Amino acid sequence: MHPISLQSPYLIFLGDESRRKFVKTGAGLVDWRRQLCAGQFRLSADTADLGLPDMTIEEAVAAGVKSVVIGTATVGGALPASWQPALAAAAEAGLDIVAGLHTRLADNRALSTAAAGSGARLVDIRVPPPELPVGNGRKRTGMRLLTVGTDCALGKKYTALQLERDMRSAGLDVDFRASGQTGIMIAGRGIPLDAVVSDFLSGAAEVLSPGNSPGHWDVVEGQGGIFHPAYAPVSHGLLLGSQPDAFVVCHEAGREQISGWEHYPVPSIEEVIARTVAVGSLTNPKIRCVGISINSSTLPADERGAYLADLARRYGLPCVDPLVEGTSAIVDHLVQQFRP
Amino acid sequence: MHPISLQSPYLIFLGDESRRKFVKTGAGLVDWRRQLCAGQFRLSADTADLGLPDMTIEEAVAAGVKSVVIGTATVGGALPASWQPALAAAAEAGLDIVAGLHTRLADNRALSTAAAGSGARLVDIRVPPPELPVGNGRKRTGMRLLTVGTDCALGKKYTALQLERDMRSAGLDVDFRASGQTGIMIAGRGIPLDAVVSDFLSGAAEVLSPGNSPGHWDVVEGQGGIFHPAYAPVSHGLLLGSQPDAFVVCHEAGREQISGWEHYPVPSIEEVIARTVAVGSLTNPKIRCVGISINSSTLPADERGAYLADLARRYGLPCVDPLVEGTSAIVDHLVQQFRP
Question: Which CATH number is correct for B143-337, 3.30.300.30, 3.40.50.300, 3.30.930.10, 3.30.2010.30?
Answer without folding.
Answer: 3.40.50.300
